[in-house]
């Protein structure tokens, strides 16, 4: 998958936020919850966001023309979580990076959000096409 390669390339960088504009990475005032800087907040958002996309693409690939059964969505979540685990492990071999359980949790949370979004969008299109699921 192309998107998995994008994640891998970003993870292979010592500072994946280097390309961002300096104004986005300046620290936020200490009054923010937890005193987090913008780069930390942005990093957390990006960790979850990249896995929102990966999980939705994985679900799309697995479901394709069948019904989005729970087993297929669970498989998509499992595959995405395994990729997230391998990505965090990969970061052990990149200078300045490390394996972070918090990042793994953000990735898996993002994946769950991506699957929920995929399911809702698919349901919307089914209803719009007059093929609403029964039950």
Plain-language structure description:
- The protein is mostly helical.
- The chain has one domain (36-135).
- It is 66% helix and 0% strand.
- It has five helices and no strands.
- Helix 1 runs parallel beside helix 4 (70-90) and helix 4 (70-90) runs antiparallel to helix 5.
- The longest helix is centred in the C-terminal third of the chain and has 28 residues, at 101-128.
- The mean pLDDT is 84.
Largest sheet: none
Q: Report how far apart the termini are.
A: 35 Å
Q: Judging from the principal axes of the Cα atoms, what is the shape?
A: elongated
Tally of helical runs: 5
* Amount of helix: 55-70%
Mean residue pLDDT: 84
Structural class: mainly alpha
Rg value = 17 Å
Strand fraction: under 5%
SSE map:
Layout: H1 2-11, H2 22-25, H3 38-63, H4 70-90, H5 101-128
Helix pairs in contact: 1-4, 3-4, 3-5, 4-5
């Amino acid at each position: 998958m192309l998107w998995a390669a994008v994640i891998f390339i970003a993870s292979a960088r010592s500072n994946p936020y280097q390309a961002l504009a300096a104004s986005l990475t300046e620290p936020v005032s200490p009054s923010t919850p937890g005193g987090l800087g913008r780069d930390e907040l942005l990093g957390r958002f990006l960790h979850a966001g990249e896995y929102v996309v990966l999980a939705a693409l994985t679900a799309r690939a697995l479901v394709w023309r069948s019904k989005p059964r729970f087993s297929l969505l669970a498989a998509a979540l499992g595959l995405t979580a395994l990729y997230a685990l391998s990505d965090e492990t990969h970061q052990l071999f990149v200078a300045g990076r490390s394996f972070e359980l918090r990042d793994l949790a953000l990735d898996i949370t993002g994946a769950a959000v991506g699957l929920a979004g995929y399911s809702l969008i698919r349901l919307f299109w089914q209803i719009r096409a007059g093929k609403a699921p029964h039950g």
